[in-house]
Amino acid sequence: AMLRLRLLTWDVKDTLLRLRQPVGQGYAAEARAQGLQVQPEALGRSFREVYGAQSRHFPNYGHGQGLSSRQWWLDVIKQSFRLSGVQDEAALTKLAEKLYRDYCSPHTWEMLPGAAETLSRCRQLGFRMGVVSNFDSRLEAILSQCNLRHHFEFVLTSEAAGFAKPDGRIFEQALRLGGARPEQAAHIGDDYSRDYRAARAVGMHSFLLRPAGQGQGPEVPPEHVLPTLSHLLARIK
User: Fold this and answer.
1) Could you tell me if 149 and 155 are in contact, meaning their C-beta atoms sit under 8 angstroms apart?
2) Smaller CB count within 10 Å for the chain: N or C?
3) 227, 3, 1, 11: which is closest to 119 by C-alpha?
4) pLDDT tens readout for residues 141-170
5) Into which CATH architecture does domain 7-16+112-236 fall?
6) CATH superfamily of domain region 20-107
7) Coiled-coil annotation: which residues (predicted)?
8) In the prediction, which pLDDT does 33 show?
9) CATH 1.10.150.720 spans which residues of the chain?
């Protein structure tokens, strides 16, 4: 079955790039560099709790509630350390500013297997390409630093769009940016509801990156599953 695709849209985190180390470890290492001892596991748990609460109270980085994404993140980082026992406000401010900057750095991220080659091949085959990511405004810088930005005609973050996946309106904006109808486009991502199902809900094709041995999620037709990114080309050619 020829899909006749013109546009490919891509999730980024855990699809093209992943953190080199878990958040708790990264945060604890930065704290150590500033002379503070915090347990990475405790910090990881605190972060997950704080991030979850902040996302519920201020969805999509506080868009429409008067928060900047920078302030949103500084609050999350400080509160994660507070929950883990760090009380010194001056130290918290310094840690938060440093970590907010560090997450733009290529030292924080690594490419998933097959990412660079697959993106290059897709461009050689003439597909238009864009990013659709529930990310803040740092994403352009991260993609540039990791030498991926040049693959994409546009980078659409949920902060810029004003809507976060699985809201179909972010995909509709991407289709306008990419000049394609839904049936001419496919989205590639690692999250069943935000990527795979949300793109299909607006009439796009989609593929779910699901590495082997990653436990069982919801049923997806095998031809829509990518055990690695390198499997994509056979699915879309």
Assistant:
1) yes
2) N
3) 11
4) 999 999 999 999 999 999 999 999 999 999
5) 3-Layer(aba) Sandwich (3.40)
6) Haloacid dehalogenase-like hydrolase (1.10.150.720)
7) none
8) 96
9) 20-107
Contact by Cβ (8 Å): 22, 47: no
The first and second tokens of residue 111, run together, are 């490419």
pLDDT band at residue 218, thresholds of 50, 70 and 90?
Answer: confident
Output the pLDDT for position 2.
65
Which pLDDT band, with edges at 50, 70 and 90, does 3 fall under?
confident
Q: Which residues pair with 131 in a beta bridge?
A: 10, 155
Bridge partners, residue 133, by sequence = 157
CB within 8 Å of 237: residues ≥ 6 apart: 125
Q: What is the pLDDT of residues 14-28, one digit of tens each?
A: 999 999 999 999 999
Kindly report, as residue ranges, where domains of CATH 3.40.50.1000 are found in the chain.
Answer: 7-16+112-236
Quickly tell me which residue has 């050619």 as its tokens: 237
> What is the spatial distance between Cα 30 and Cα 99, in angstroms, rounded to a whole number?
8
Q: What is the DSSP string of the chain?
A: ------EEEE--BTTTEEESS-HHHHHHHHHHHTT----HHHHHHHHHHHHHHHHHHSHHHHTTTT--HHHHHHHHHHHHHHHTT---HHHHHHHHHHHHHHTTSTTTEEEPTTHHHHHHHHHHTT-EEEEEES--TTHHHHHHHTT-GGG-SEEEEHHHHS--TT-HHHHHHHHHHHT--GGGEEEEES-IIIIIIHHHHTT-EEEEE--TTS---S---GGGEESSGGGHHHHH-
